[in-house]
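INFO batch 0412 | record 1 of 1 | parsing
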Amino acid sequence: MAMAMATATATDRLDRTFAALADPTRRGILARLAGGEASVTELAAPFDMSMPAVSKHLRVLERAGLIVRGRDRQWRPARLQAEPLKQVAEWTERYRRFWEESYDRLEEYLEELQDRGKEKGNESKR
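INFO prediction complete | emitting tokens
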């Protein structure tokens, strides 16, 4: 039961992370935060949208655990939290290995076909 609960929680976190990453504005915000913390005003600057719209994007990123927001008097800097991105990388790693293995098998098969073609070519020259 505890294992099923842990898996559901991990799946929920991964779902929230992918949902947050699905939007190009949020990916842009994360790219900016990779260079260091920034205020909402600084994060909004490259985007043609209202401050409330940017704040909504920040809330989505915060709920997904991709950013944390501090408080320094009136300034609320946002800062990147990379742990959820690490979880995405680990999840996608399994599929990368699958595709690499599939490509390796395809390469072996193509080499086998080429070798057969060479053998047939040599037989016809005799």
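INFO post-check: Helices lie at 2-21, 24-33, 40-44, 51-63, 83-125.
INFO record closed
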